[in-house]
Amino acid sequence: MPKTLADIKKSLDCHLGKRLQLRANGGRKKTIERVGTLRETYRAVFVVDLDQDENAFERVSYSYTDILTEAVEITFDEEPKTAVID
């Protein structure tokens, strides 16, 4: 797993447009699981377009800090299920 925010952003930049599974901490022992496509990366956040069949809204965004603190885990479809960003 990347150790800095810049490394996380570079890693995500290499996966733009790819399908992913996202697991986020929803608070109070809740885990949110979503499937979508990594659409864009910005200076402080990244945007995921969600599958419309499974979700009520079109897209979500998270900060790179969420990945660094392990509040969000991302697994890309072409990687093994246990992998978390390079």
Automatic annotation (TrEMBL):
This is Veg family protein. PANTHER family: PROTEIN VEG. Pfam families: VEG (PF06257). InterPro entries: Protein_Veg. It comes from Kurthia gibsonii. Transmembrane segments: none annotated.
